[in-house]
Amino acid sequence: MSHERRQILEMLAQGKINTDEAERLLDAMRERNAGGAEQATTVTRPRFFRVFVKGEDEQVDIRVPLQLIRAGVKLGALIPPEAQAKISGKLEEKGIQFDLSNIKPETLEELIDGLSGVSIDVKDEEETVRVFCE
Amino acid sequence: MIFPPSILRIRIKEQDSKGLGLCLPLFLIWPIILAIGILLAPVVLLAAFITWPKGTGKRLLLAGPYLFNVFCRVRGLRVKVKDKEDNVYISFS
Lengths: 134, 93
Known about the structure:
The complex is a heterodimer of chains A (134) and B (93). By secondary structure, chain A is α+β, with helices and mostly antiparallel strands. Chain A is 54% helix and 19% strand. In chain A, strand 3 and strand 4 form a beta hairpin. Chain A is elongated. By secondary structure, chain B is an alpha+beta fold. Chain B has one domain. Helices cover 42% and strands 26% of the residues of chain B. Chain B has a four-stranded antiparallel sheet with strand order 2-1-4-3, with no helix packed on it. In chain B, helix 1 runs antiparallel to helix 2. The longest helix of chain B is centred in the middle third of the chain and has 22 residues, at 30-51. Chain B is elongated and about 60 Å long. The two termini of chain B are 16 Å apart. The chains are: A alpha+beta (134), B alpha+beta (93). The interface between A and B is medium-sized, with 20 and 21 residues.
């Protein structure tokens, strides 16, 4: 039991407030807690995927909205299977093993949730590479 | 409610040149896109109806809204590339 809840119940037991007032206070406390939890989840949800590379003379900074990745995968799912197979074949010829059909909206959500926690930070004397979500 | 990007900013600067800075008001092409969509709708509907038995009809129907969704979600995309000589900046907002 939380401290605030105990205080309200103690005030009720001592007769400082009546049952209606106690109920109102408890409701207000519940609403506030629910609002706080909701706010916490929205704050932590990242909106952009960011890649930052800084070399001696060059610098690359790319910020991609995660919603764009979602929308792109949805659009990609419309590509007919025969065309997807051709694309995968061509990619494989180039040494890239990537099957478009493996990316489905459900798995994408898992991937994006996983990305949210990813933070790659590589730094040496000449270069800095950072990959993260913000 | 999602809106398409309204401004595209492009800045390209090469060494020994003044560079180029563009701020394109994309919101001006929203009505054109809408008009094209309305004009194409009957054609797409007919094509989807004809190709429905083959299984491509659904794809045809969804392609328009999904493309529009991608266009809308471009808002926020930003690319900055800089080296000793050149500087390129592209941003949708």
